[in-house]
Structures are given as C-alpha cells and as structure tokens.
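Colleagues,

Please find the record for the two-part complex below.
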Amino acid sequence: MPTAQLYLLEMACWGLMGGILIMMALLVGRRWFRQRYFRRLDIWRQELEASWGRWLRADLPDVCWRTERHRRVLLAERAASVIEQPGGFCEASRHCTFLPAEVALACGDRGQPCAAPAYVRRRVEEWGLVRQQMEAVRAAEGLERAREIILLGRLRSPLCLPLLRELRDDPDPDVRLAAVRALGLLGTPEAVAPLLELLERAEMTVSIPSWQRALISCCQNHPALLLPALDRLSGTPRTLLMRVVAEVASPAILPNLLELAEDPDPQIRAHVARALGRLEGEEVRGCLQRLLHDRIWFVRVRAARALGVHGGWKAADLLLDALNDTGPDVRHAAGESLAAAPLPLDELFEKARHRLTPIGWGVLLGELGRRGLFWTLAEQLVSPAPAVRALAEQWLRAALENGARKTLLDALFHPEGPVADAMAELLVQHGDASLLPWLEELRARAAEEPGGLHRLQRLEQRLTVSASP
Amino acid sequence: MSVLVWIDSFLLYYYAVLCVIYLALFALALLDSLRHQQWIHTLPLDRLATSPLAPPVSVLVPARNEAAGIVQSVESLLGLKYPDFEVVVINDGSSDATLKRLQEAFGLIRIDFSYHARIPTARVRDVFASPTHPRLLVCDKLPGGKADALNAGLNLARGAYFCTVDADAVLDRDALLRVMLPVYNDRTVVASGGVVRLANGSVFANGRLQEARLPRSPLELLQVVEYLRAFLWGRQGWSALGGLLIISGAFGIFRRELVLEIGGFRTRTVGEDMDLVVRLHRRLRQRGKPYVVRFVPDPICWTEAPASLRQLSCQRRRWQQGLGQSLWHSRDLLFSRRGGRIGWFIFPYQIVFEFFGPLIETLGLISVAASAALGLLNQEYFFRLFLFAYLFGTFISMAAVYLEDLSYHRYRRASEVARLLLISLFDYFPYRLLINLFRIQGMFDFFRQRARWGELARRGFTEPQGAPAHPA
C-alpha cells in the first residue's frame, strides 16, 4: 500500500478530529456568548424602561444609543411598539402613563384616540433617531440591512420615504422586499405611488403577496388612489392590483366596481365579487346576481361567498339557485353561505323544496348540519318556552322530511337524556318507516350509550307499528 | 482475490464521492440555515397570521388506531396560528376507540354531507362535524391504508393547499404559518415541508409542547440525532440545491389542485409521501414550467419514535421499500431529456447512495475486513480507513447537533446538548450498521414486492414523557 495513501488517511483523521474539537469549542463558546449577550440585553431593556418617561419628556438620559447599535435598536423597537399601537386607540394605559401631563390629558378614556403614537413619532424625529436609523440602513449590508429597513418602516416617519423609494430598486432582492414591507408599514397614502410604480415594470421584482399587503395597508382608507393605475394597466399586473382593491373596497368606488364587473378578464370579475361582499345595496346585489351566473366557476364561487356576507332572504333566494350549480365548489360555497345566514329553517326548506336537485339538498343539509344547527334545534325541544319548542319541532320536521336523517338520528345519542328522548318522540310522531334500516346501523353504538339501546328499540317498535297496514 | 481488491477499490471511490457530497450538503445546509434565521427575523409573523391574502389550507390527518393521542393531536391542530384553515381527520377504519374519543372530546355529530369523490377511495361511511369547533371535520371510512385515507381527505378538503399531518404528531403553534411562508412569498412553490422531530422525552400539555427534552433510552436518543441529521443537514442541503425529493408525510403542504391532477396519493406504495413528491417533480418537469419544492427548517412537527428494535426495524424496512417503489414508479425521470438536476443528479444519487447504499456499505465492510484478514490489505491501512470512516460518521452527527444549537436552539439545557454529542459517538457504529441491516431487509421486501406497514405502539402525549417505553 503506497505510503502516500496512508499519510493522506492519517492526515484526514487528524483533520476530522480537529474539526470535531473546533466544532465543540464553537458550540461551547457560542452558548457562553449567547448567555452573556441576552443578560446584557435584558439589563439595557430594564434601563430603557425605567427611563422611558424621561425620554418622552425630552430629558434625554445619558446613554450612548447613537454609537451602540444594540441600544439604538432597543430604543427604536420601544418607540415602534407605541407608534404601532393597534387602531390608534387608547387601549393600553402603559403607553400613556409616560406621557407629559399636558399630552396625557387629551388621552386616557378607553375607546378614545390615543395621543401616545403621534407624540412618540414626533419625539423620535426630534431625537434624531429616524436620521440615525436611516444612517444605519445605509451602512448595513444584506439581511442585516433588511432588518434595519423594517425597523425604519416601523417608526412610520415620512422622512424616510425618499430613502425607501430608493431602496425599492436596490439590486439585493432582500433589501427590495424589506423596502416594500417598510413602505407598507408607513401606511400612508404617500407610500402608494412608490409601490404602484413597481407594477409598471416589465417584471415584478418583489414577492407579490408582500407587495399586495403593503398596498392594502397604505390604501385602507383611500381605495380611490388605486383606480387610475387600474385603468392604465392590463394583464397580470391589473389582476394583482384588483386583488388589493377587493380588500380595501368602499362605497366611494362602487360605480367603478360595477363597471369592472363587466370586465372580460374572469380574475377581475372574481375580485369584483369579493369586493362587493364588503358593500351593501340593491345595485350590489344585482351585480352579484349577474356574477352568480358567470360562465367561469371561480367567479360564481366568489359571488356566492359575497352573498353569504350580505345575508337576508334576497341573498338566500339567489344562493338557493346556486345550490344547483354544476360546479361542486360553487354548490359548497352557496351551502356554506346559506348555513351561515340566520334564516328561519321552515321557510328556507319551503323555498328550497321545489327548487333543489338531490345534490343541492345534500349540500344544504350537510352545511346546516356542520354548523350544528340541527343539534341546537334538538336541544330546544326541551325548552321551557312552548313557542321555542314548537318552532324547533317545526323546523326539525322540515329537515327530516327533506332528508337530514343522519344528523337527526345522531341526536338520539345526545348526552342529555331528555333531549335524546324528545328527539325519539319526534321521530316516532314523524312515523317514517324508511328510517328503520338506518336504525339498524346505529345498534352497535346504541349498546354503548346509557339508555341508548332501550330508546332505539322503543323507536323501532313504534315505527314498525306505524308502518304496518 | 483480485475480485476482493477490485471491490475494495470500488468501495474507496464510492466512499470518497459520498464524503464529498456530504460535505457539500453540510456547507449548503449551514449557509441556508444561517440565512433562513436572519430572513425570518425580518418577517412580521404576527401580521402574516392575520393576513387576508394567506391561501386557505386544509390540514389532513389520517388516523388508524390512534386512540392514545388523537385528541391531543387534533387539539394542537385546532389551536394553530393561521388565518384560514380547516382540520379534516380521516378515521381509516380504526378498530380501537379513535372515533369515539374524537366524538367525546369535540362533541361530533353526524352530518348528511355530500361527498364528491374526485379520487376513488374505500367507502366513506360517515362525515362528522363539531358544532363547537367549526374548523373540524371528521370522516369515517372503511380501511384502505394511509394513502387512501389521505385521498378521502383530499376529496373533502376545500383549501387551495393541504397539509398532511400524522395523527400521532403535535405541531408547534406557528408551524403551519411558517411552513406556508415559502408559498406566501413565491407562488411557484408547489410543496413545502417542515422539520419532524422526536417527541420522546419531551413534555406536552393540552396538545402543546411545554419543553423539548431528550429521551432516556439510547435507541431513542440515537434516533433524535438521526432525525437532526436527516432534516437539518440532508433535507436542508438538498432543498438549497433545488433537489428535494421527499417531504415527510408527517408534516408537509402541497398545492391541492396539482395533487388532484396527478390522481392524489398512490395507494399501492408504502412510501406515499416520497412517491407524491417524485410524481410532482415528474409532472412539472414534463410541463416545463418553473416550480419550487421547499424545505423550511423551523416549523416543527413533534412525533413519536419507535421505542423498540422490532418497531424500528419495521419502520425502516417500510421506508426503504417505499423509496424503492417511488424510484421505480418514476424511473422514466432518470436521465430524461427534461429531467434537469433532478433526473441527472438527484435521482441517480437516490438510487446509488440511498437505495443501494446500505447494501454497498455492508458488503464493502465485509470485503475490506476479509481483505485485511487474508493479507490483501495492509493492516495499518485497514485500521486507518475504519478510523476515518468512524470519525467522518461521528463528525456528520455532531455537525447536525451543532447546526441545531446554532440555528434553532430547541434543547436549552447544556446537559442535553452534551448528551446528544456523547451519543453521536455511537451513531456511526453500531447504530448505522444496524439501520443498514434493516434497510437491506427493506430492499429485499421491495424486490419480493412484500408490502408491510407494521404498527407503532403509541403512548400519547398527555403524560410527561421520559419513562421507558412500554410497547404493546
């Protein structure tokens, strides 16, 4: 065996042993460093929390946040946690207690707009933290830079808009994406233009959902800002933008939406249907009715879901027709929407009786059962109020006549004995002998339930008697 | 004699290539892992958890005789942090109290559900819903196997994506959100898989992981290291290379329409998860459109590992058989014109190093030992070769532990990391040798076309684990 090979093998073994030792040393070292780092971070955080009131009163404590990165990040995150207060309402008094008295006076009642976010945003600019953060963005690289950009966005200062616009076109995809997210975090109408400019390019250079989310956040109260671009664009970019419009739609843009409902692109029509779910009125319902008969199935699905949001008998009428649709997804969407609407069951069944195909019935009953409606009705059979009892009985009979057998027979095993007995009584009164084969299937289960077998046998006997001539 | 020398030389080259591939995978996994850690810190996960743009997901849970842990599993799934999802449990003809436990825990009621079978399956007896948990749907069907149960779930599912989760698994609360991140950011992602880790020894309460701990039994501990190696090193490395051929059936998401298009899960295989991913690759390669199959290293699915050798043997034989069946079924992908790196590199790798690997390694070991005994091989060379192989194997296992500590840090106590490092010394020898023997048996099962599933005795997650296993 050549000595060279032996030597190589020996070297490789030493190399591996060295590698293992180095790895273990790195592991131990890193654990020690992590422990130390988090301990220090905790101390800094406590210091910041203790002096937060002084920070806000412009009495800047002597800490080196301008030169120490970790301290700057902590400070920016603390400020961002106030600025990002959800809804801007005064829900967390912890933010307001630190405010100077004259500012805090305007604040305090629950449900009132909180003065803290605006105040802190102004303070953050006065401290120079925003400028400092912008410098940090410029100095950092790669994903570290992306993190700094996100933090900058969280401070929601309009000062950073030009920088974010510039970073939106950075060659690094992570930086571009972070810039788009930061623009979204700003949440101002001014940030819409730089986001829309991305669409005009030949190719979208950032993740589409992130871009859409950013736009939604900026246009939440200004959907009209998107319409000019929607007119200008075509093809996929237009569809992407329409998805955003669907999320921020308001009555102000209803005429435009009605116009778009006639668009030749089915994706656009589907998004219009989604948008109309957020609006109300006769015009809206009329438009949804048209979309419910669209030749593309996913447009019909969207229209059915939107009608479900509307609720009421007018929508239910349209949805009942959709239960006979040729597309299974449309039928399910219609069924779900109907089941979600609080409608009197007997009337619903009455309307449905002459209109639904067996498949449509199956979907409707399945969805109603899934919502637990029949189960709730069974429980109402033992209600002390006679009116409630009568109504529950009436609706359950209607369900039984229309084929909801499985769900109703299941109520024979209700954990509350009186409910199960009441259900058995209802089934006896109904006297449908076609239930007998179904009861056979339940025998094994009935044997396990207390009183189940007795109840089942009694029901069987009485149904057999009623079935005999 | 010359045959032995020839085999020894072949083995040497084979082993050298394998070492290079492993090192390359480690480098890729390390870089990808560090990058992922940084990237995830830039994401506003809380905002994504309420995003209206998140695609709806159906979580499919096939369950057969899972009475011990099904309630905890479903509870953990119903508490997932994701804007729009449903949980579909498919009771695949369990002979134990699986369905009864579900009925009691979630107040299930039978519903007259219109079942539209886009993929043919064994008969669906009943569909149940829970009035108290509107996201939950339970399907009771005649037994047909895991793939058949998943197909029934696919027929019931309504989400644009579906996620397969084993019934004995518990997901981290944000696992679904994290595994969907690649889809959210890039709509060309057709499948994405998370990490499966072993729950043995860890403490669970109310269907949630309280503390990640290690099991006491060495066999289970060795499996912990093996899983770390397989997921954090292997899959992450292959994913970075764009050649992920397997997404664990215990936890992975797929685009529903695409899977329906290729006929759902194939029922005539015991490795339905790998089979599906390979078939997806084949279909999408043929189509020639860009697509991505991703592995995400931080959404974690906790599952039970076999606690006895018999169960472990059963599991590994099945996996090896499933690997063979998947590769054989999609063999036209091998060196095909449109195969790309999958057909020209990953597929051959899977055949040579994964399917035939255990046989080659074991025969090679015997051959080298015989050569040394017959004096055909220098004793010193033999010793050094084995030392190198052992050290390399140990290096790989320790590097996987290092990767875990560097990136994900789930085992907080230093003593637990020390135990993992210590047990890594036994990973190459004798554990890998043992696993190779099981895998060789699996190879023969494949050639004899002998399907075997075997069942793992479940202990459930309710009690703090760590006690010695009590397999049935």
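Chain B touches chain A through 53 residues (CB under 8 Å).

Comments are welcome before we finalize the supplementary table.
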